[in-house]
Amino acid sequence: MIRNLYDYNYLPYGKLSLVTAPTSTAVSITEAKTHLRLDSDFTADDTYISTLIDVATNMVEEFTRTRVMAQTVLISFDQFYDVMNLQLGGATSITHVKYFDTNNVEQTLSATEYAVDLKNKPALLYEAEDGNYPDTYEKPNAVKITFVVGEASADDVVAAIKHAILIIVGRYYENRQDVIVGSQVNTVPLMVERLLTPYRAYDF
Questions:
Q1: In this predicted structure, what is the pLDDT of residue 178?
Q2: Residues 74/75/80/83 CA torsion (nearest 10 deg)
Q3: pLDDT at 182 over 60
Q4: Closest to 12 (Cα-Cα) out of 154, 111, 101, 145
Q5: Contact 108, 98 (CB under 8 A)
Q6: Strand partners of residue 145
Q7: Is the pLDDT of residue 100 over 90?
Q8: Strand partners, 91
Q9: How many beta carbons lie within 10 A of that of residue 55, not counting itself?
Q10: What is the mean pLDDT of the chain?
Q11: pTM for the whole structure
Q12: Res 5: pLDDT
């Protein structure tokens, strides 16, 4: 059963950590060099451009509160709650839910005990209508939810997100200092905000 979110005055926040990093990027070096109008045979800055792609992707992910390319993430809570905010949009699947029982022994929660709304931004995990969450050992991070978030292929990443990454790459490739005399340099350019806002996961 998908419960009414607004029945709850408080959605506890968990602690996120990366389990498995993505194996590819949404934007290739070739695409970035085309955007920067660099010749394909100019390779002196390839390492730097690759770093900028990573930096830009991180900025996009932090702004949208999601993850671009497929990766496995762990979120930990101190106990079970009726509704648990996974804090990220774009989640595609739950790998498993583990917990420490009252004897401090790690167990895997049956998938019949919970339901999940992956379409919500951020994704939410609920106690199932006929579910019954077990008691947990009283310690930090007693409940651990592992899930996959992000697109499996760069071809599946929406054009706006790709373009936002390219804009940031171009910005930092041309301006390699924090402060440019006579210019105002924002962390995330307004154009990028407008591109990314429809894909942002919002808190409640």
A1: 62
A2: -120
A3: no
A4: 145
A5: yes
A6: 75, 97
A7: yes
A8: 149
A9: 14
A10: 89
A11: 0.84
A12: 46
